[in-house]
Amino acid sequence: MSLSVGWHRRLSQKYRLAEAQALKRSLTVGQSLGPGKIRLGGKDLLNFSSNDYLGLSKHPVVINAFIDAARQMGVGATASHLLFGHTTSHALLEEELAVFLGRERVLLFSSGYAANLGVISALADRHCIIHQDRLNHASLLDGALLARARLKRYAHDALPDLSEASSLPQMVVSDGVFSMDGDLLKGALLSKIARAADALLIVDDAHGIGVMGAGGRGTLEAMGLDAEDVPVLIGTLGKAFGTGGAFVAGDKVLIDHLVQFARPYIYTTAMPPALAEATRASLRLVQEDPSSRCHLHRLIDFFRSGARARGLPLMASETPIQPIRVGGAGQVIVLMEALQAQGVLVGAVRPPTVPPGGARLRCALSASHSLEDLEKLLDALHRVFQRTMPEVLS
Ligand SMILES: *Cc1c(COP(=O)(O)O)cnc(C)c1O
Prior knowledge:
Blueprint lengths: L4 H16 L9 E3 L4 E4 L2 E6 L11 H14 L7 H5 L2 H14 L3 E5 L2 H12 L5 E5 L4 H10 L2 E5 L15 E6 L11 H10 L3 E5 L14 H5 L8 E5 L9 E5 L1 H10 L1 H4 L6 H16 L2 H19 L11 E7 L1 H13 L2 E6 L9 E6 L6 H18 L6
Parallel strand pairs: 3-12, 5-6, 5-7, 7-8, 8-9
Antiparallel strand pairs: 1-2, 2-3, 4-10, 9-10, 11-13, 12-13
């Protein structure tokens, strides 16, 4: 035992508490098989827990771009962006994303978590009031903590009250697609009240980029909102783009400021250049080939009508995130395990990722799936609910 007795006791108390509340998190070693599949504990499952919404992580064009670039430039960036880890690959990806999104500039980050910490902490300070949707991603809340700003959380079905302190700088921060509910922000209303109060509106569209909007530009495109409405747009590359890292898009003044002051940008190794090349390939596919996006939206419709026909309780989501609310943390684990026995993997999400009593099965659909795969998922869901929680079926 390398921890002291005191520290050991402190840590194991917390661990046992989480265990007693059915909130203990555990790692499982999975092996990714072909698109839409995963091997867990020697069993092959249909994977409905991945954010690879367009199946691009396994696309041969993306894989080859990654391999070719790694052969040429090596694996790691070997330095931070400001200390010469920034390469032509990064610069080109930033330019291409900016054109794609119709923004002046884009800045890459190593992850969405880092982008959110970086943007909020670079723009806000102790004197700033940050209004956040109660269901925002943890990294956005952590950004406000890092900035030591005054954090105000508004109810998910409400709008922030921006009238209180007109002399202080204010910010409104929201997920574009809510990551555990799959629903969308009230974009038009938020941008209207934010503009009227001179509050800066920041949208994290981690789950919308590549998926939503006719051109795959995300939730803002789907809502007809532009850079005037939402001046700061954040997106991750590890979800629909199938690679990794993240970006912030905005005007030149914003991006220049981030390069100076966003500590999670400055003090970290740049994204591997090969990953930037793979992402450039993903971006080309997102732009040139809408077929997987169309297929995904067909799957979403198919899932929802199939779930309704089987009496499964759906949430208000038109995105590939299709949660089924269960309630109890213990119950959701039982259901997840029963589903695995039926050959399908879905995520069980419990507090504190969702509010207390809001545990749910989070089904994530991907263009890698076929209609038959969804048929299997729906039948398995129906079977396990009928067996263990028939009261939720309508
Ligand atoms: C996944 C996610 C992030 C974090 O992105 P990573 O690139 O995985 O670090 C940030 N915000 C939201 C809304 C997310 O869903």
